[in-house]
Amino acid sequence: MKSDIRVCSAWREAHDRPVYSLSATCPSCGAETVNSAPAPLDPTDPHGEYRRALKRRNR
Ligand SMILES: [Zn+2]
Questions:
Q1: Cross-referenced Pfam families, in alphabetical order (predicted)?
Q2: Distance from Cα 53 to the centre of ligand 1, integer Å
């Protein structure tokens, strides 16, 4: 499922915790926001497929 919820791209530097927003910029620091969904499902993660396969096997 595609999420419209975005997260401040600089939250690690600017905030104590992820700052979520529906706008294109962070309401707190003004940095660009990024879609919050792709991060945990990063297709470039070299271990992603292995990890998912492991998860399926354990189920
Ligand atoms: Zn921010």
A1: Nop10p (PF04135)
A2: 35
Quote the ligand 1 centre to 17 CA distance (angstroms).
10
Q: Which two tokens stand for residue 59?
A: 């189920």
Show the tokens assigned to 30: 């003004």
* CA 59 to ligand 1 center in whole angstroms: 37
Q: What three-state secondary structure class fits 41?
A: helix
* Beta strands per DSSP E along 3-56: 6-8, 20-21, 33-35
- For the full predicted model, state whether its pTM sits above 0.85: no
- For residue 22, the CA-to-ligand 1 centroid distance in Å is 13
